[in-house]
Amino acid sequence: MSDRQKRILAGLAAGLFIACVLHSVTRIPGSSLTELVQGYEYRSYDSRMKARAAYSEEGSIDDVVIIDIELSSIESMGNYYDWPHAYHGQLIDVVSSGKPLALLFDIIFDPKSSDTYDLVQTLVSNQAGPALELKQAADQFLISHDPSRLVASTAQSPVIHHTLVLEHPDTTNFLYAMDGLPGDYAAVGHTLDLPQDVAERLPSAERIGNIYFDLLNASQGIGTPNFPPDNDGIIRRAPTAIYFTGSKDVFPSISLSAAMDILGIPADGLHYDFENNILRLKDSNANVVREIPIDDEGRMYVNYYGPFKTFSYIPYLYCFDPEMLDPSYWAGKIAIVGSSLAGLGDLKSTAVQESFAGPEIHANV
Predict the structure, then answer these.
(1) How much of the chain is in helix, strand and coil states, percent to nearest 5?
(2) pTM greater than 0.85
(3) pLDDT in tens, 22-66
(4) In angstroms, how far is CA 196 from the centroid of its own chain?
(5) Which of 55, 101, 243, 250 has the fewest Cβ atoms within 10 Å of its own Cβ atom?
(6) What are phi and psi of 58, to 5 degrees?
């Protein structure tokens, strides 16, 4: 072997050795070099997303629509926290009648007291021949405040996906880890069928924060809304699924729950290829219908199409009333119910904008 060939081989060996060292060092969590490389990757991703967003137009995407709890809806319908659940039941009935592909709620519902409803119902039933106007007013109140309507409407619609809160324990507030599913939650058709070794590589949670289990049980699909930010506080990645350690079940994200329903993906149709960082979605015939790039924890990078309101927004008030918006508008669309109001606390920091409505992150996913 000539001296020149020896020098070439030595150079290649040195380069390969340095590359292996750098690869190993940058895999060490918390190391300064790892953080340096991650910081470069984050800035590169942010730059690409912002460059893409510069060419987008407001409302240019309308196959996924945000049903927005915004100022005009609150001014007309009252303080959001005072809305009876029957309002959301009516929204479900109206939108579902238009045959959308999916209707997602980026809202966490808790049971509401039915004391006022029960009191009015008792007073009306005990009245001997109440005045016509009084009876009409009471009947209207009972219809618009029926506490069972949200669950009933959810059960009757085949396109509803509600939010499941998976979280870590908070012992300060006596919120402890759970050793199984809550007894009132059946989780039928809501979990994924994954090998245990795959499940354990996904982001995990130790407790379920929901308490309105009648609603979850009635829903066609459920999913997690989690968007944990990166170390700098910016949301770039979204979990595709979360492993609940209490029962060893895996729950999809709410966006993936809807996508599986639309594409006909069974519970065992998700195939995580961590070697190539690809999630393959297979239908019931084992045909690959989607391939999604993922990281080592099964999270996908959010492919932002543009800044706030690149997707179409329609006030909740209009969607709630079929006379204001014909339900046929929803045919073939995906609707996401949420809020763009700062007061409702769902504004996030993203790669394309510092203040970005949470429901639109789901839309981008």
Answers:
(1) 40, 20, 40
(2) yes
(3) 555 445 555 555 555 566 678 888 888 888 888 889 999 999 999
(4) 24
(5) 55
(6) -60, 130
